[in-house]
Amino acid sequence: MASVKMPQLGESITEGTISKWLKKPGDRVKKYEGLVEIITDKVNAEVPAPLAGILREIKVKEGATVTVGTEIAVIEESVGAAPTLPSPRGGGNVERATAPPSPSPDTGEGQGGGAESRTRLSPAVRALIEEHRISDAELSRITGSGIAGRISKKDIEDFVAKRAQPATANGEQRQTSVPARATSAPTPETTIPLTPMRRAIATNMVKSKQTIPHAWTVAEVDMTSVVRFRQKAKDGFKLQEGIDLTYVPIIIKAVVEGLKAVPVLNASWSDQGVVLHKDINIGVAVSVDDGLIVPVVHQADRMSISGLAKAIDDLAKRARAGKLGIPDVQGGTFTVNNPGTFGTILSYSIIAPPQAGILAMDAIVKRPVVVEGDAIAVRSMMNLCLSFDHRVLDGVSAARFLQGVRRFLEGFSEQVPLY
After folding, report:
1. Helices (H) and strands (E) in the chain — how many of each?
2. Does residue 182 lie in a domain region?
3. Cα(40)–Cα(158) distance, integer angstroms
4. What is the arithmetic mean of pLDDT over 95-104?
5. Residues 80, 108: one domain?
6. Residue 257 to residues 35, 252, 322, 406: CA-CA distances in angstroms?
7. Of the residues 36, 65, 84, the one at which a domain ends
8. Given pLDDT bands bounded at 50, 70 and 90, which one contains residue 296?
9. Is the domain of 279 the same as that of 381?
10. Last residue of a domain, which of 24, 53, 84?
11. 155 assigned to active site
12. Which residue has the higher pLDDT, 339 or 168?
């Protein structure tokens, strides 16, 4: 018998939540075959079986949260046991669920890929399905609007809203009106169940604020040169690379140069001293249905703007499709957050331990500013907010870093290599 334990899914991760068992007791498993889905605040990871054999016992139920190293299952190495029938794969990766799992054995019958499709639902979507008692037949009629047809929270919410409306004799929905009353009963409150990812994010954010003495500083950056550069280059870049040239890789390039000049910010705090990291690995915050995932661009200091753009695009797509691996979220030394995509103008971010800093880039907004010669001109302006660990560095070093980032961006020109 071999023990399967909760793996370490990141440097600062101490626990994980069992999201979905992909096998049941008695099933034969192959080495490196997907065994269980585990959720942390950083990733929804499919953990493979460490050896081939038969899954004899599941020690931890779905939805339970346990610490790293806890025994979660037992596998017996065996050659003679008869294999169980495999679940249907549907000819490829199934991104959209069409039927919730059945307690009866999977015989390959049923709609839309059966249990295999079900494993592709996010925990938040599963919770809504259970809360609103959506049947198998109803779920099979929902068309997913997510990547590759994946069902999102909004799809479920829209379905529930339509289901709640009464129907006419010919099946069409009709609106009902309720006469106003002088007094009305209070509207009942709704409690949204915490998904494992939301709970893990909350735990880590509280830990970050309780253990890291946060400080922050803001720099105003004239992005006019960068905006002009991107405007000229984006069409050719899209044609050649097949992806959009956004501002994020350009700003990350500036961040990399800033970290080279102020390496104490590319560091972590320890009781033995400040740990300076040799590689510059940039975490990029990506919004998903359940919250925020921060995949990592490893060795970003060795990449061109084009290389950064392709790496970021790949990570973002896989994050939203639930296809990130454990290495994709490990090893970050500094994080860049982009709330500006939602129009924010000043954002203060919480540091992701054990990193020493996080930079928030806000929206680029045209406004009148005073330029050389006391003239007033319309420029494309952006705020950059740096949150930093005051144990690791002081305000002078933080300001020096931001100054370097600002100079790189304001001095941007066509001479800056894209490749």
Report:
1. 9, 19
2. no
3. 28
4. 38
5. no
6. 42, 9, 31, 11
7. 84
8. very high
9. yes
10. 84
11. no
12. 339
CA distance linking residue 156 with residue 139, whole number of Å: 9
Q: Which of 235, 244, 279, 394 is catalytic?
A: 394
* Residues in a beta bridge with 288: 291
pLDDT band at 338 (very low <50, low <70, confident <90, very high): very high
The model scores a pTM over 0.70: no
Q: Is 394 a catalytic residue?
A: yes
Cα 246 to Cα 39, 122, 229, 286, distances in angstroms? 30, 28, 11, 14
DSSP secondary structure code for residue 77 in this structure: -
Question: Backbone dihedral region of 318: left (phi > 0), alpha (psi from -120 to 50 degrees) or beta?
Answer: alpha
Domain count, the chain: 3
One DSSP character per residue, 371-416 reads EGGGEEEEEEEEEEEEEEETTT--HHHHHHHHHHHHHHHHT--TTS
Residue among 4, 110, 113 at smallest CA distance from 59: 4
Question: Can you give the CATH number for the domain in which 353 is found?
Answer: 3.30.559.10
Distance between CA atoms of residues 183 and 187, nearest Å: 12
Asked whether 325 and 45 are in contact (CB, 8 A), the reply is yes
Q: Is 177 contained in some domain?
A: no
Q: How far apart are the first and last CA of the chain?
A: 53
Q: Are residues 236 and 375 in the same domain?
A: yes
Comparing CA positions, the residue from 73, 88, 89, 90 lying closest to residue 26 is 73
115 and 52, same structural domain? Answer: no
Which tokens in the block code for residue 85?
Answer: 């029938």
Q: Let me know: does 259 contact 265? Beta carbons within 8 Å.
A: yes
Give the span between the Cα atoms of 292 and 62, in whole angstroms. 22
User: Which tokens hold the place of 183?
Assistant: 């007094």
Rg (CA), the chain: 25
DSSP alpha helix (H) spans, 90-186: 114-118, 123-131, 136-140, 153-164
Asked if residues 298 and 331 have their Cβ atoms less than 8 Å apart, the reply is yes
How many whole angstroms separate alpha carbon 138 and alpha carbon 154?
Answer: 15
- Measured in whole angstroms, how far is the alpha carbon of residue 201 from the centre of its chain? 11
Of 36-50, 96-110, 177-191, 254-268, the least confident:
96-110
Residue 181 lies in a domain: no
Residue type, 200: A
Within this chain, do residues 154 and 277 fall inside the same structural domain, yes or no?
no
ω before 354 within 30° of 0 (cis)?
A: yes
Specify the 3-state DSSP secondary structure of 264: helix
Q: At what angle do helices 196-211 and 123-131 cross, to 10 degrees?
A: 130
Query: Which of 132, 214, 277, 390 is the catalytic position?
Result: 390
Range of the domain at 223: 212-410
